[in-house]
Amino acid sequence: MTQLDDIRAIALRHAGAPHPQMPRLHAYCIDNPTDANGLIYQPVVCLVLQGRKRTFIGDGALEYGASDCMVVAAELTAMGQVCEASTDEPFVALNLFLDPAVISTILLDMNALGEPAIGSGFGVAKAGPALLDAWHRLASLLDRPQEIPVLAPHLEHELMFRLLMGPHGALLRQIAGADTRLSRIRRAMAYVRHHYADHLSISAMAAIAGMSVSVFHRRFKAVTGVSPLQYQKHVRLHEARRRLVTEHAEAATVGYAVGYESASQFSREYKRLFGAPPRRDADSLQAIVEAGP
Question: How far is residue 220's CA from residue 207's CA, in Å, rounded to a whole number?
Answer without folding.
Answer: 13
